[in-house]
Amino acid sequence: MMTRQQIARRICSGSGLIDAHTHLGADAALFYNGDFPYAISAEDHGVRMTQSGIAYAVCFPFLYTGYFQMAAFRRGQFRRDPRGVSAFPYAFENQRLCREIYEAFPEFAGRLLPSAFFDPARRPREQAAGIRELSTRYPLFGLKTATSYLHSQIGALLAEGACLLDLAAELDIPVTIHSAVLPGDPWANVFEILKVVKARPDVRFAIAHTCRFDRRALDTAAGLANCFVDVAAFHIHCALAQQNHAAVAAKSDRFPADYRHHAAAMQRIAEAYPATLLWGSDTPAHLWKSRFRNDQGQEVWMDLPCGPATEVEELRKLPPAIQRRIGHDNTVRFLFGEKGGDDEN
Ligand SMILES: [Zn+2]
User: Of all residues in the chain, what percent carry a pLDDT higher than 90?
Assistant: First the structure.
């Protein structure tokens, strides 16, 4: 098996397009809810990457972990399943991700870059020990969390969950954090995330989903040397901006761009924050179709469509120098630090 350093050197020495935000695996809770997407395999990724010219993809598991009782989880209650497959959050899912890439489909090793999911608040010490052990068996390229859907406070990373950031620093891998601006989502609030990023200059972070277009958050992120921002699922976020949906920043706080035009909006943001932005598609969550109950108890069918090649086709409309910066150069600094793949450790 190639080592992490060998893979890093190969990525850094070329100029191939890197997708900084994708998922790999399956999510039984989404499946039984009737939501989309709910799965993608390494083979599926390979087909899409070949078709779209993406050279490398950072892959996270999906959100649901067998640590939780699924029926309760689907009702928004978080109960450990004592007979579940994961003794701590994502134990099974992170291992399955590595096995899929390095054992079942080794032809994708070095192109699909696994990044382990974590929950900052539940059994963090066991999670850190599990991920450390996993990293001795397989090359790992990052950590990822999406606290909105776990109802864990992101601030736990400065308390009981600090051991997970200590691990990221020890392994020299970056941390991607799902962000929110929705008033009803205190768990992944983008300004709470920024407090964590500020407090841990020894760790590289990516705030996902363009900070939900919040200009104040983007400005703050760009001022922090250890902070990157990924543009994952940009297309459906443009649709949300056009709807003035509360999932993106209100117009008064929103980065000024014409969100009717995906590529033009992305170019403006990339020009404003040249060293900060990372390109990521969120494949297969570039689209989102979900049935849920809103705060008023009404059932809502949220349908945010996006074609399978839209994210990459829109990227290709940007000037080549910007494509190279957000699709490779910034991403290499995010993944491997300023030293890139030259580190012999
Ligand atoms: Zn995602």
Answer: 94
pLDDT tens for 275-291 read 999 999 999 999 999 98
Residue 60 Cα to ligand 1 midpoint, Å, equals 8
Kindly state the tokens that stand for 291: 């049935």
CA 165/CA 54 separation, integer angstroms: 29
CA of 344 to the centre of ligand 1 (A): 31
Residue of 209, 158, 157 lying closest to 180 (CA atoms):
209
Distance 329 CA to ligand 1 centre (A): 21
Q: Domain spanning 4-62+95-342: which CATH class is it, in words?
A: alpha beta
Q: What six digits make up the tokens of 146?
A: 């999406």
Q: What is the whole-number distance in angstroms between the Cα of residue 117 and the centre of ligand 1?
A: 11
Q: What are the extents of the domains in the chain?
A: 4-62+95-342
C-alpha 19 to ligand 1 mean position (Å): 11
Ligand 1 centroid–CA 199 distance in Å is 24
What separation in Å is there between the alpha carbon of 5 and the centre of ligand 1?
26
* Band (294; pLDDT cuts 50, 70, 90): confident
Helix (H, G, I), strand (E, B) or coil at 16: coil
Distances (CA, A) of 143 to 113, 173, 192, 222: 11, 7, 18, 21
Rg value, the chain, Cα: 18
Cα–ligand 1 centroid distance for 345 (angstroms): 30
Query: What would the pLDDT profile of 17-32 be if each residue is shown by its tens digit?
Result: 999 999 999 999 999 9
Whole-number Å distance, alpha carbon 23 to ligand 1 midpoint, is 6
What's the token pair of residue 235? Answer: 């297309």
CA of residue 45 to ligand 1 center, whole Å:
14
Indicate the pLDDT class of residue 163, thresholds 50, 70 and 90. Answer: very high
Three-state DSSP at 337 gives coil
